[in-house]
Amino acid sequence: MTFSVTILGSSSALPTSNRFPTAHLFNSNERFFLIDCGEGTQIQLRRFRLKFSKINHIFISHLHGDHYFGLFGLISSFSLLGRKSDLHIYAHTGLEKMIECQFKENTINYNIVFHKISPQKVAVLYEDKTLKISTFPLKHRIPANGFLFKERERELNLRKDVISKFNLSIKDIQAIKKGSDYLWEDEKLIKNNHLTYPPDQSRSYAFCSDTAYYQEVVGFIKNVDLLYHEATFAEDMKEMAKKTTHSTAKQAAEIASKANVGKLLIGHFSSRYKDEKLIENEAKEVFENTETVIEGKTYSVDIKRKA
Length: 307
Fold this sequence. Notes:
Strand content: 25-35%
CATH class of the largest domain: Alpha Beta
CATH topology of the largest domain: Metallo-beta-lactamase, Chain A
Distance between the termini: 20 Å
Strand order of the largest sheet: 6-5-4-3-2-1-18
Number of helices: 9
Largest sheet: 7 strands, mixed
Order of helices and strands: EEEHEHEHEEEEEHHEEEEHEHHEHEE
Radius of gyration: 22 Å
Number of strands: 18
Structural class: alpha/beta
């Protein structure tokens, strides 16, 4: 089962010839969720041959243009391509009115369902049988939110030989996977731990952009497998980071270390940096398992068995 994120944009406010503004495509078992939609997002989706027609949910972290200017073109393209299914957009108040204004004279042939994100509040935005998506506050010049994508706790795994050995029915299998013991031939009780082994660990991905160093975030992203955290500046521009409410690479790494995450991805780089190796090296001094993101690259989290 796929659990991954593909980077579409990793520049900060100004796009460069090599980097687009922020956008990520999250894939949970071939269900696609777009996180932010900077200018050029649909170009990147096409460039990397991603299944953007399957995007039904878009999450916008905050209303600075480099995080949503690509949304209007994407909405229009969906319509031109004959989309009929609903498009769900999760964002702060203000974006809904902008969308309504933009498409007042340009009719689209599908419904846009707007979900308001409340600043400074932790909330569940989306959930189904296998996935839950939550939001939490960040620290920026305007209201900004991070997102946590987490698989639900899995059922127990059934041992391969027990179905034929005990001639289990579908009803029996469902009950055992939920933790029940099994009464064999109405006389012998087989304990669940003889029929199953522990479930696979649920996987998680957290997105934190844009934000100043904000230690409160640690509680929301504790132990995630994969963390994306903005790293707009190198440490020598720490005061500029503070002034603009952004983070340095070292600060992003400190958050990753305190949250005990599995891997740290850093991005949202200032256009002043032609080579991000300096930024990556500064982060690695604090948190070794750090990588500067590459646009078009997909970062996956593998399934892990519980001990």
